[in-house]
Amino acid sequence: MDVTTLIFAALAVFVVWKLRSVLGARTGAEKPPFDPLARRKTPQEAENSNVVRLPGAANDQGAPLKSNRWAGIAEPGTPLAANLDSIAAVDPNFVGSAFLGGAKAAYEMIVGAFAAGDRQALRPLLAKDVMDSFEAAIAAREKSGEKVESTFVSIDRATIEEAQLRMGTAQVAVRFQSKLITATRDASGRIVDGDPEKVTDVIDIWTFARDTKTRDPNWKLVATETVH
To answer: How far is the C-alpha of 147 from the C-alpha of 3, rounded, in Å?
Structure first.
């Protein structure tokens, strides 16, 4: 069944700090990461509310091939534009602007799910190794009795930093500049990290991948990096 979903995630200052110990930095060994008003539900989406459709990215028919198809995404003649062309060659309906629209919605979804410790919401959005790391961090938090309060203020900017097609797997790295309010409380309710009154600027680079050799249209988060 052809449905395109974009799988992404972001961490608030504490969230990112908490996960860095279990996720670590990129090693090169990682698997080569919606606009709700624009999305159209399919039967598969109706069965799974966690599926996020990326409009126009893989299944919307008739996306035109234009010389300026990456306008606002990548400059013509750059390596990024060439790599996006490589992805579009195996997925002619891949549209950069629609992809980013879905990325922003999925980013917010995962931030909220991680803060809430919602494993069920996270599982279909993350690659297995990333899900294992997120789940370990959630379990450690639960064991200590800590709770994270996270309020998503805004995504100020989302840009495609890198893209490549590696042995049939499309990979897209997106830089998110966002504003979050986050605080962590211990079992007694005392704030141990963050500030519930302070808006914090966060910059994350998340990498998403999809195997274009299969009929599975899903994108999943495969790597995270925090920019300081």
So the answer is: 35
Prediction pTM value: 0.70
* Residues in contact with 96: Cβ distance below 8 Å, sequence separation at least 6, in sequence order: 69, 70, 72, 73, 74, 84, 160
What confidence tens digit (pLDDT) does each residue in 153-183 have?
999 999 999 999 999 999 999 999 999 999 9
**CATH class as words, domain 13-226:** alpha beta
**CA–CA distance from 17 to each of 79, 135, 175 (Å)?**
32, 15, 17
- Give the domain ranges of the chain: 13-226
- Tell me the pLDDT tens digit for each residue of 188-197: 999 999 999 9
Distance CA 162, CA 174 (A): 7
Backbone angles phi, psi at 218, to 5 degrees: -75, 140
